[in-house]
Amino acid sequence: MADRDWLAAAFEEHRAHMRAVAYRLLGSMTDADDAVQDTWLRLAGADTSEVENLGGWLTTVVARVSLNMLRSRRHRHEEPVSDAWPGAAEAAARGGAPAGPSGAGAPSAPGDPADEAVLADSVGLALLVVLDTLTPAERLAFVLHDMFDLPFAAVAEVVGRSPEAARQLASRARRRVRGAPSPDHAAGHARQRELATAFLTAARGGDLSGLVAVLDADVRLTADAMAAPSGRPVLLHGAAAVARGAVMSTARAGQSQLALVDGSVGIVFAPAGRLQAVLALEVSAGRRITAIDVIADPGRLRELRLAVLPG
Questions:
Q1: Do residues 180 and 189 lie in contact, with contact meaning Cβ atoms separated by under 8 Å?
Q2: How far apart are CA 21 and CA 35, in angstroms?
């Protein structure tokens, strides 16, 4: 019992660090708490008599657990966006309505939404959104090395590759995180941001006339198959149909924000930093939105260059 009490006390000393590592890797407080709990179970069942650096051992284990969770998430192709923008748009097209155990050393219950929001803000929502576009191995290499200063030898042990391969993973991730939009894409940002802001404000308020005012009469909205609950691509044509879809998504619009999408101003839906959908916008010289592409397919999302814009 004394040994278990010692392990529990040691685990508590490192809990905050493990939670921070898991959160940055997984982008979800709930998932991070699950990873920490799994780490405790592994610690409780392991022979640690020859472990010289318990903190390093725990960091490695929680990173491995998080990596497995990331890979499992990819294999499931993520969850659909539920009643997010594409689902409401699909309903508009149809003309209808939108459709841990407790105890010593065991991780505490998952934090509440306010707790998650505070941590998301401290990490930087923009960074979490960009991290969600990386492969699991790239994300792990970048987070462990660039954010927590782990040597590449330790990163390599977690991802099961050589230190040089781990260095290359981190380098690729770093380029994605630090990538800047090209001058050509940056042209017209003021007009793009003005329209995207007006669109998002009207969507949040359920303002149908305000939405129609910023949409071109022939605007086209497309959504990929992963975006729609039916699993089929969605196409809406005309300001009235697209505006109705946005009105049906007022709640989701409240959790969305402006972002640079491949250098142009668009909108991301990423609650607590978990990227779920992107609205890529095209605008005309006449200050109207002419096209909206709703992207939720994980493969397509990973190809995007994203950076959340300050409010």
A1: no
A2: 10
CATH code for the part of the protein at 183-308: 3.10.450.50
Domain 2-178 identical in fold to domain 183-308: no
The model's pLDDT over 203-237, given as tens digits with 9 standing for 90+, comes to 999 999 999 999 999 999 999 998 887 788 989 99
Give residue for tokens 């969770």.
69
The answer to whether residues 147 and 177 touch, using CB atoms and an 8 Å cutoff, is no
Neighbouring-strand partners of residue 294: 223, 279
Residue type, 45: G
Q: State phi, psi for 265 to the nearest 5 degrees.
A: -75, 130
Query: Residues 257, 121: contact at Cβ < 8 Å?
Result: no
SS3 state of residue 9: helix
pLDDT at 260 over 90: no
Distance of CA 7 to the CA centre of its chain: 33
Whether residue 195 is predicted with pLDDT greater than 70 in this model: the reply is: yes
Query: What residue segments make up the domains of the chain, in order of their start?
Result: 2-178, 183-308
User: 10 Å Cβ neighbour count for 57?
Assistant: 17
pTM of the model: 0.55
Tell me the one-letter amino acid at 187: A
The proportion of the chain whose per-residue pLDDT surpasses 90, expressed as a percent, equals 44
* DSSP class per residue in 74-113: HHTT----TTSHHHHHHHHHHTS------STTSPPPPPPH
* CATH H-level, domain 2-178: superfamily: PhyR, sigma-like (SL) domain (1.20.140.160)
- Are the C-beta atoms of residues 270 and 276 closer than 8 Å to each other? yes
81-96 mean pLDDT = 42
Cα–Cα dist 41/65, whole Å: 11
